[in-house]
Amino acid sequence: MELMEKEFSIVTADGHVRQKDNAFFSGNELTKVSSEEAEEAVAYFEKEFQALEKYVSEQLKILIEEEPSQSVIDKLEELREDVVKSRSIGDFSALLTKIEDAKQKQKGLAGQKEEVQEVSSDDKAKVVPEEEDPSTEELNQESSIEETEEPAQESAVEDKEDQEMVLPEYSEKLEPIAELVKGLLSLPVEENWQQAKHELDNVRFKWDEIAGAEEGLSSEKGYQELMAVLDNVEQKIFAVKNELQEKRKERKKANVEKRAELLGQLQEIIDKKKWQAFKEINSISNRWENIKVFPADAESDQQDKKFQELMDEFNEKKVELLVKKAQKEEENLAGKLAILDKMSLLVSSSGPDTKNWDKLDIEVEELARQWKKIGHVPLEQSDVIWDKFKKTRDDYFDKKFEHNEAFRKQTVRNIRKKEKICEEAEALLEEKDLATAVREMNGLHKRWKKIGAGPKDKNDELWERFNEATQKFNKVKSENQEVIKGQEQQNLEKKLALCEKAESLKDSTSWNETSRELDGLMEEWKKIGPIPRRKAGKAWKRFKSALDAFYENRRSHYKVVREEQKKNYDQKREIVKQIEALADLDDPKEAVQKTRELQDAFKEIGFVPIKKKSKLDKEYKLACDVIYQRARKESRTGAPAQASGVSKEQKGPRDEFFKLKKECDKLQEEILRYKDTMTFINPGGQGNALIEDVQKKIDKAQKELEKKQKKLEELRSDDGSQA
Predict the structure, then answer these.
(1) What is the pTM of this model?
(2) Does the pLDDT of residue 83 top 70, yes or no?
């Protein structure tokens, strides 16, 4: 049974990570891990394959630029072997196909080159040896694909004109020479100037033979014309040769710069002490070796010397690193064996007399944590020591299950949870919305990992059941990729429609109404199923940007509101002071009249900061009560009243009134603070949970506020003066 299967890998139930078989080789086993480490291990080997792809691309780019030869073909075969032996996970079929295509292409080009060389060698046998141009010898020794496959466009036009040129009729004596010249007109000068030069030399040799055997031939009409054609072909050959020599000089210069760049990369690796950069070093070394054409001068010699010095230094440090790595792996092995001994001792000491299983759990988990923290051990010992660790840990939980009733109950609950997950996984096999089903199946696997262990036999049975459902689902998924893509596309269109709605609301100034609408859009967004992964981030960013724009505008608005409320507070505070001053007037009626005018002004002023509202209202009410109490007292007694405050009969209800008013103000302040807090929470993920929590607090405070406000209204109706 498989623990996990992906497109290019399989993890077996007992933790073996394998490559899947492909068209070129049978998949290899890469490592063995626990079920908790499976995804992390596969991700590691997938990352290794990405590095391998990059390395192969670099090598192919270098090799296809080289002159076709058996050496290049051999290097491509070595590259293929390196890929086959790679300990990584990925699309090996596609990667090896690229290498095979490059190899076949190089074989074809190399075969064409051999045919050209055979023709050239046959021509050489016919040509009378002449004093060779040194530059020609150099070019013959180191000719490249660039030199034979990059004809100048202008020269090609001239060559076409020569091929189409029709020579006039010549005398019988000149006819043999004319035939020789006609053969020259179709020479592929731009494609292979060396071959053209051999043909020209052969023609000159035969020309001289004919001219020597035929007296007076040079005086024949048309002889000089044919000689001019011959000279023109020769000039054309030397023009192509000179052009290629210039290109060769430029190429040598460019190669010197390439070598300098490689030296810089190598120096950087050594300066940074990256002694594990084996692939980078191999790539640099291969690229260095593949640069064949460069000037034979002191600068090139110095580059060779520097390269060898740097490579020697790296190789020396690499050996030291490998030795240290081997030593470290041996130390890690000793460390893990020590942990096994401690864990075995804990297992042997536990049993029916064990009282504190919680303490043992902590010790076992701490040993397991230390085990994971220790690095790699020698490869040949890896599987053996892992099996021992797993068995020792299983033995501990078996004993705990046998002798600890609470643990047995917990494992039963774990089994029930896993049974429920199995049922949900099996139900997903009938789900029509496959895109959503894929997401839910991934969620089930995450939940499974968080559930603790159960009895081993039952746990294995449930795992097989869950894994079987997973495999069946994966088969359905692989057979319906187009359906899933279509569903994801539909979900994308729905989310893009929500983006448009959110964008249409982002500039709204109906703060409360729009906030509710955006909250509704967020709820819709969460209910929509998965969308194509490559577009998910962009869509969410667009939606969130619209929400952020609105909330930022709202924060800016309330900032202005708060400034206005501060001004309102100052104005109302000044009115309260004026009312308090009226208590010293001799005529209470006059004081009442002026107080009413100030009350009207007080009511005309807008809101004040919620934190200061309660205290301000209390001061305002008290100041007004003093004025009205004096007036009522005077009307009852007929004598002038003094500002003596509030009577004992009125003190109880008034205190209750102001207490309730203060509590209402506090609740309003709390609600406003919560709403302000929500504007700083970004929707999505954990932010949605925070928003829901804050909204619950707002709802609770709102209910409490409404209850207190109702009671406050009752008190106001009992005493109109407090209204």
Answers:
(1) 0.40
(2) yes
| Coil, strand or helix at 644 | coil
Strands 29-32 and 2-5, bridge-based pairing:
unpaired
d(CA 189, CA 234) in angstroms, rounded, equals: 10
Question: For residue 631, what are its two tokens?
Answer: 């007036």
Cα–Cα distance measured from residue 630 to residue 579, given in angstroms and rounded to the nearest whole number: 13
Q: Are 554 and 516 in contact (CB under 8 A)?
A: no
> Is residue 299 helix, strand or coil?
helix
Q: For residues 583 and 610, what is the distance between their CA atoms, to the nearest angstrom?
A: 28
HSE toward the beta carbon, residue 128, CA cutoff 13 A: 7
What is the three-class DSSP state of 262? helix
Contacts 24+ apart (CB under 8 A), 432-437: 433/487, 433/529, 434/476, 434/477, 434/480, 434/483, 434/484, 434/487, 435/484, 435/487, 435/488, 435/491, 435/529, 435/530, 436/487, 436/529, 436/530, 437/473
Residue 484 has a pLDDT of 86
Query: What pLDDT, on a 0 to 100 scale, did the predictor assign at position 189?
Result: 77
Each residue's pLDDT tens digit, 687-717? 667 777 888 888 888 888 888 877 777 766 5
Write out the DSSP string of 402-468: HH-HHHHHHHHHHHHHHHHHHHHHHHGGG-S-HHHHHHHHHHHHHHHHHS----HHHHHHHHHHHHH
Residues 6+ away with beta carbon under 8 Å from 317? 270, 273, 275
pLDDT band at 630 (very low <50, low <70, confident <90, very high): confident
- Please report which confidence band the pLDDT of residue 263 belongs to, taking 50, 70 and 90 as the band edges: very high
**CA–CA distance, 199 with 191 (Å, rounded to integer):** 14
Q: Average model confidence (pLDDT) for the chain?
A: 79
Query: Which residues, at least 6 apart from 103, have a Cβ–Cβ distance to it below 8 Å?
Result: 73, 76, 77, 80
| pLDDT higher than 80, residue 147 | no
CA pair distance 347, 391, nearest whole angstrom? 11
Closest CA to 30 of 62, 61, 8, 51: 8
Among 513, 496, 490, 506, CA closest to 545: 506
The residues, any chain, with a CB within 8 Å of residue 610's CB and separated by 6 or more, are 665, 668, 669, 672
Question: Tokens for 148?
Answer: 């034979």
pLDDT in tens, 324-347: 888 898 999 999 999 999 999 988
Instruction: Please state the length of the chain.
Output: 723
